[in-house]
Every structure is written in C-alpha cells, then in structure tokens.
C-alpha cells in the first residue's frame, strides 16, 4: 500500500497513515464543485482515505464501534477528541460489505447483529428495498443538492454535520 497516496505500488514498511481534517474540507469542496460528475470521477480527490474515515465515523455514529477497528479507525482505547482529529488505518483486508453499508447495498440488523443485503444479488434489476431514512435534518440535501439520489440522504446529512463540526 502506498502511504503517500500517489499511486506508487512499491512496498514500504509504514503501517499507519494520518488523514488531516483539511482533507475533509477538500472532500466537501470536491462534492460541491464536481456535483454533476460521479464521485469516483473526481480527479486527485481524497477518495480512498476520506471515504474510509467517513465510513468508520458513520459506523461509530450508528453504534457499530465493534466494526470500526476492523475497518481501521480509532479503537475504543483511542476514542478521544485527539484521536478523532486524525485518522489512522492499518493495512488489513476489509470486507466489501462494510463499505457497502454506506452505499446502502447492505444494512446492519440490530436484532440479529448481522449484515443483510438490501439488493438481490441474483437479480440486478430488482428495485431497492425501502429503507427508512433517519428523521431530522436534511442539511445534506441543501449542501449537496446534485448528489441527492446518488448518495444516501443519511450519509449526506452525516457528511454535512461532520463538516459543520470541523469548520
């Protein structure tokens, strides 16, 4: 893994990497300026690291702290304000469905404590199952109107509230 983020595939002994809050701001700006385009088409955007950071923060917000360590955010031992101002991740295999939780391919069932698929993998044209969104603020829709329907409303709201706390 290339800790510099430049795409170099050469091996290196560094196991940890920090993500500063200014990259969160960069991601916020990228969403605002590049709204007509796919999020994966943003050139030189901090997609991978900020995506992991936001996803693990989102898991933590949902009360799934047992998953955050696997994905590479702070553990319960580092759940301090200082720990949350930076981002560390370990080089580890991350199950795809953890990333899919944010994109709404999977959801966490608090009763069975399992990940459940929201889309039938055998039928790619099946409509999405209805997922009740969090009630409350719709500030994500206001901040990122062109991303409505592309990125989950809950995730947009979380990103917007995250930015508001950091700015």
From TrEMBL:
The keyword Glycosyltransferase does not apply. Keywords: DNA recombination. SUPFAM superfamilies: DNA breaking-rejoining enzymes. It comes from the Bacteria. InterPro entries: DNA_brk_join_enz, Integrase-like_cat_sf, Recombinase_Flp_C. GO terms for biological process: DNA integration; DNA recombination. The keyword ATP-binding does not apply. PROSITE patterns: TYR_RECOMBINASE_FLP (PS51899). It holds the Pfam family Flp_C. Residues 1-166 form the Tyr recombinase Flp-type domain. GO terms for molecular function: DNA binding. This is Tyr recombinase Flp-type domain-containing protein.
